[in-house]
Structures are given as structure tokens and as C-alpha cells.
Amino acid sequence: MIRCIRRCAALSLVLLLALAANAVRVMVVDAGSYARDPANRRIAIARYEHPRGGILVGGRSVTGSQDTGGQLAYARTYRDGPLYAPVTGFASQTYGTSLLEGTEDGLLSGTSSQLASVPLWNEITRDRQRPGDVHTTIDAAAQKAAYDGLDGRRGAVAAVDPATGRILALVSSPSYDPALLAGTGPAVTAQWQRLNDDPAQPMLDRAIRQTYPPGSAFKVVTAAAALETGAVTDLLAPTDSPDPYRLPGTTWSLTNEGRGCADASVYDAFRVSCNTVFAKLGADVGLTAMARQAEAFGFNDSGLRVPTVVAKSNFDTKMSPDQVALSSIGQFDTTATPLQMAMVAAAVGNGGELMTPYLVDRVTNHGGAVVSHTGPARLHRALGESTAEQLQQLMEAVVADGTGTNAAIPGAVVGGKTGTAQHGVGNKGTPYAWFISYAKPPGASRAAVAVAVVVEDAEAARADISGGGIAAPIARAVMRSVLAAPPRPYN
Amino acid sequence: MSATSADAPPPKAPPAAARPAAPPGSRRRGVELSLTVAAVLVSVYGYAEVGLATSGAVPRDAAGYGAGLALLAVLAHLAVRARAPYADPLLLPIAVLLNGFGLVLIYRLDLEPALGPRAAPTQLVWSTLGITLFVLVVLALDDHRMLARYSYLGATGALALMAAPIFFPAVNGAKIWIRAAGFSIQPGEFAKVLLAVFFAAYLSANRAALAYTGRQVFGLRRLQLPTGRVLGPVLAIWLLSVGLLVLERDLGTSLLYFGLFVVLLYVATGRTGWVAVGLLLSAAGAVAVGSLEPHVHSRVEDWLHPFASVDAGLGPGQLAQSLFAFGNGAVLGTGLGQGHSALIGFATKSDFILATAGEELGLAGLCALLALYALLVARGMRAGLALRDPFGRLLAVGLATILALQVFVITGGVTDLIPLTGMAMPFLAQGGSSVVTNWIIVALLIRVSDSARRPLPDLPEGAP
């Protein structure tokens, strides 16, 4: 009996050891895979356990967090949601994140290792790191001016600081309030459905995610290619260009909206936006040089991150001469994001130097200490200094005495270019009114702001003037708001 | 650790001179008191910690809770001191600690509104009742051998208790509850003790017949099978277990009864053949029921594939949630009140209570809890070794086995070692019947350990 009791005790010990070994398996060996299992709700609970970090514009947070009282404690709130939606994107408990909320998620939610003050300490204490704040480069006044200028019409505005690449405004219209998607539940699902079904695509960030045919605004690039290659040396010399211009190798003739384009000088042709002159210039310069110049401005680059992904602006690299001619006036397959066209204006206004655009100035941890900082960085030299000066003459003439007079700002030097792009089958689609410009503060040689505005407007007459009529006033308002602000200290 | 003489009990009572009366210090009642106070303090600390972690303040009733628990524990201690002065000094502190900590866990889970109404106050009432019964048993039962006289009465009572829930509606798939006047009772819990007493009495009376009759297999005495006459009661118990399983759909309890019987049969007869027969019968029963009975079958499927429902897009099931909880605990745990074991949902406070302990106290805390149970079981076994009468030995081993099997079955179930069967973690889990029964088990262990450790009276010269 004694021996049997001892064996029972030994069996109990074996059972205990089996339990302990199995506990080690579950709690140590497999714990990592359980923690990563998407079905484990602890991931979501931990993520929303604390208020999310803020996205700041001009030192003021445009986001907040609100305790829902539910299992996922904190839901995102937005101040002026529709205004800043193209910058912030949304952070939803149901649908994940987009734009800055997505790219900076690790910092905003507190998981990023960048925030760890003492390595491994949080691993031991199991405290969750406090989230950081993301300080954007957005200029609140410029953003507001652009948003008010679009006034609900479909379109977008992108503005950058040419000297640094700081993005000052990113507006897309119509917009939406990302707060509608913040939480969970049927109301959120219904809003998501509504926003996705809306033909106006309010959740599309047109400023960086939509490409449009740039139309005549692309003539800046064509003029740059002509000057850089030496195809044009004297802006005032008449070009050998017929009106109408028959596209090479075709029987199709290109005409102009305005008059006086036959054999016009580049200066005049740019000022009144002659299609014939620039189509011929592009064809003369040739595909290789045109593509090289477009790429120097940032076209065909699918890797641009600001840090949100910017859609690739396109200039085809395999085309027949007639297609090159059409592409040179911003038609055929040439497409560009508003940010890309703002970069074109910025490179010209900055003496040919194209800075990398960026949206996040710095990230601070919960204590306010800077954990990462973005400085100005050169993307390309897009143009020679002298070419840039010549282009500035052309663009400033457009505003002084051409299609873009609506963009003039008293006391400041403004250079711009209008565009109206037809598109769709048989060019029956709603025309896009473009205006790209830069503005120099009084007495300065370099531009302080560059803007691109695109308005998808059924009201726009099929005239090149529409870019100046509809888009230019918006660009002016944005430029004025930037010039009116006191000089910003660089940090 | 004082039972060195008990480790090798002689076949006959030793000469009295070899066993002098123990000095007063060896009763170890002071050790018991200080450990019991420590157990109360640990529980109160846990209670305060939950409050601090969840609302930043010590719960207002922490002092009252501590005072109540301390009062009950001290009363229990005084009863032991008065009527079982030689009892094992570890049994009471371990029971107080487990019960107190169970209350802390239930109180902590009461803070999760998703888990339904508060359960800690009711559990406290049941614990009070349990400790009261503990005191009564210790005071009233002079000698455990008295129980053997009433074993058949007890067995009848056990059968009645086990059969009673058949006439009540099933709750969550198992017919093991009686609900009346707002209270729900699991009579099967009480039946455990009665069955242990009956098994111990029956086997100690019939062990010779069971051990030394019957035919041998392959001429091996070790594999000797019993004769049909004494096989009858074994088959009856087996049928009872399977019948319970089918009628009440309670795999855990039937496993417990049968395991208890096989263990006691083996201890009583020393025949490995009994173990073989028992294992064969239980394996056959388990396979048959596991494949035929849908409720049990689904438990087996869950055990083999705990994440099948996730893969099927239905979200994690209870067992998967339990594993997530244990995994989140890792080595040191999240800290009391910081885990999310409430995601398990139904039965978080009862069958799955260990998941909360695992998540919030980590592997370290879980192993500490298991060590407490192991100590309790070991102390029961040790009392069985030290006792001199077969009934007492079998009773002590039986009670320890009840605890060991329960801990193994439910811990193994919620950690996916074996198929999950509903069973209460002794003292920790919510459930009044279980807490009361466990206190009675501890009271009986106190009683038998007192007998085991009590020095023999001086025998007159020439006595047999």
C-alpha cells in the first residue's frame, strides 16, 4: 500500500510537470505567435488604450482623441476634419489608417521603437510607450485659403516652399470628415459605404493621389527642355511655326484658341499659350530631351514619399513624333499630380534647384523632445540657373500681361502658367482648369511659395483663359497668405 | 517535513518507547497561524492591487474584506488548534490563500461589465459557509474512522445527489445544476466527498478479496484479473460514470469519479491489472462518447484545433481566447487588473479563472499557484503514508486525488493540454458548491493528518 501511494504521488508529480511544461509552451514558446495573431483582440485593445498622438499644424493639433467608453477606449477626433483630411487621412478603429495617420502610425500609436527612451525598459515594465506628436509643415493660413478658394468644387491645391521643399498646403475638394470613420459600429460602416459610393470621391486625396493631364501648364517643362537643349536661345526671336500646325506623320492639324501664334516668339507664345508653337518645339527637341527634362522635374518617379505615397506623374518614354508633340502641350498620356506641378513651378522659382517635398517637419515624443526631424534636401537640379531665369521671365510675363493676370499680387513678383486640359473620349470630359505659379516676396530673388491649382469644372469654357479665370485666383489667395505671414524661422 | 518516521511506517505498531510524545513545539500551530496571517495579507494585497491598477485607489472595503477573511481564517485556525492539534500546519494556510486569492480574481473580473453581474459577494458568502462547515467538521468529527460506518448511507446520498440534476434543465449543455430560489447548486460537487468516503470504506473492507482472488494472465501475478464477483462493483462504477456522462453531459466529473476509483483500487490492492482494466475501460468509454456525443465531440475538436474557428472566419473561440490570455501573460504577467481575459466571455470567472491568473500573474504566478496545489496534494498523500489504518490511508489518498485530478483536468483543459471539460479549479473558481466541498475536503485532510501525526499513546506493558 505504501509503495502504491508513493506511485500515486509520483504520478501526481508527473501530471504537475506536464502542466508546467505545457504552460511554458503556451506562455513562452507560443506567446509571440499568439500576440501577433490578427484574431487576438489585445492588439486592437492595446492600440486604442491611450489617446493617440497628435498631428500638428502650426504648433496646434488638428486631431484629438475621445474616450468612447467601449472596449477600444480611444477613438480619433478631428478639428476641421474636411480641411485637413488630405493631410491627416483617417485613423479608424474599423478601417485602419490612411495618409499621415498611416505612415506615422507607429509614432502616433506609440509602438515605434524611435520613441523608446531607454532600450528594453518598456519590455520589462510592460508599460506602453506614450505616443509621439507629428508636426507637419502645413501652413494653416495657406491651407485655409486654398480650401476656401476651391469652395467645394472638385479640384485640388498643392503648395510648397521652393527653397526647402516644405509642403505648405495640400487640399482636395470635395473633402470629408475623417471623424465619421473613427469608431466602430453600424454608423461608421454606413458612412464608409456612403463615402466610397459617392461619385465625387471625397476620400480621394487629389493633391497627391490623382493625376490629371496638365494641359498648357506643361509648357513650362517644354520651354525648359527647349532652353536647356539650346533649341531656343533667344526668347524674343520668332519661331518657325505654322498655325495650324500639322502633327508630324499625321494629317491632323493643331490649332490655337488665341490669335497671333504663327511664327510667334517663345515669349509671346508662352504668354498667350500657343499650342502650335510648343507642340512643334517639343517635336523639335525630341522625345529623349523632353523625357529627360520632365524627369528632372520629378515625372516618372513612383518612389516619391512625403512620407505619404505620391502617385507617379507620367511622361511617356516611347512615343511617335506626333505623340511627343501632343505630350509637349500636356496632352496625350502626360499626366501630373497637383503636387508635381507645384514642384515644376517651385524649381523655376528657386533658380532651377528642385527640393524634395516633405510634409513632416519633426516628430516629438510625449515629453516634447524631438525624436526625428526632416531637413531640406535637394531632389534634382531641374534646370540651369540661367534657364531658370529665362523661364521666370516667361512665367512672370504670363501674370503681368498674359493669361494669368488674375494671379497678380501688388508688391510681389508672381510668375505663373495657365492650363486647360481636355480629356475623355473625344475630349468630352469636364475640362480641367490649371494654374501653377510662384511668388517672390518684395525684393527677393528666390520664390517663397509655389502653388499648383487644378479645378475640375464643368463651367469652364473651352478656353485656355479658364485656367486664369478659375484657378489663378485660388493660387493668388494661397500665395498671398504665405507672403503675408511673418518669415518662418527654420529649425 | 516532520514525518520522517511516517515515511516508512512499519507493518505493526512500533514499540511505544520508539515514539515518545512529541514535544509541544512539534504541533506547529504557531507556524500555521503565521502562515495563515500571511495568506490573508497576500489576499488583501491582491485586492488592493486590483483597485490601484484599475481605478488608482485602494478599494474602500479592502479593510473590511481583509478583516472578514482574517476573522474566518483565525476561527478556522482556533478550531484546528482546539480539536486537531497535530494536524499538518500547511493545509489551512494553503486553503486560505487559494480561497482568498480566488476572491481577488473574481472581484477583479467583476470590474468587467461584459461578464455579467458581480459574483464576488456571493462567493464570499459561500466561502464563509465553507469555512463554517470546515470548523464544524473539525469540531464534530473526532475520528475519521467514524465515517466508515456510514459509507453505504453516504453512497446512497451521493447517487441521489448525482442523479438530481437530471430532473432540472440543462445549463450551457450540461445537466449538473439545481436551480432554486436564486441559488444554483452543483450536487455533484458534494457527491465527490461522499464517494471518496464510500470507496475508501468499500476497498479497505474488501481489499483482500480483490487482491488475492481471480485468474492470472500469462501466469503473471502482477496482471492478475479479478473474478466476476468482485468485478461487479467496478463495472457498476464504470457504468455510473458513463451514464452520468450521457445523461448530464459532464465529462469532467465522470472522469474524476472514475479516476478516483481506479486510483483507490490500485492503492488498496496493489494490482497493476486493475489499473490496466481501468484505463482500458475509460479509454473505451472516452472514445465512444467522444465520437458519439456531439457536446463532448466538439470539445475534442477544439482541443485538437483550438484556432479552427479563426481560420473559418468566425473569430476565436473560448479556448483560443484562453490561449491568447495565457500567451499575453508571458513570464511575469500584465499585473492584476491589466489583462483582457474578459475576452473569453462566458465562464471566465469559473472554468477559465486560471486564464486570468495566467495573464495577469504570468508563468511565475501560475507556477506558484500550481505549486500550492501540489503542496496540498503532497500533504494529503503524506498523511496517507503516515496513517496506520487502511480506511484512513485510502481516504487521505482519495481526497488528495480529487484535488490533483481536478487541478490537472481543468488546468490541462484551459491550456489545451487535454480536451476541455467543465470543472472548477479548487478554491479559485466561482462556484459555491465547489468552494464548500473543498473546505470539507480540507477539513477531512486536517482530521486524517492529525491522526497521522499524533504521537501514539503510551501503551501498557504487554499490550498487543
UniProtKB/TrEMBL annotation, chain A:
GO terms for molecular function: penicillin binding; peptidoglycan L,D-transpeptidase activity. Keywords: Signal. GO terms for cellular component: plasma membrane. It holds the Pfam family PBP_dimer_2. Coiled coil: none annotated. The keyword Oxidoreductase does not apply. SUPFAM superfamilies: beta-lactamase/transpeptidase-like. This is Penicillin-binding protein A. The gene is pbpA.
UniProtKB/TrEMBL annotation, chain B:
The chain crosses the membrane at residues 33-50, 62-78, 90-109, 124-141, 150-170, 190-209, 230-247, 253-269, 274-292, 361-379, 391-415, 427-446. GO terms for molecular function: lipid-linked peptidoglycan transporter activity. Keywords: Cell shape, Membrane, Transmembrane, Transmembrane helix. It is a multi-pass membrane protein. Pfam families: FTSW_RODA_SPOVE. It is found in: Membrane. GO terms for cellular component: cell division site; plasma membrane. Residues 1-27 are annotated as: Disordered. GO terms for biological process: cell division; regulation of cell shape. This is Uncharacterized FtsW-like protein.
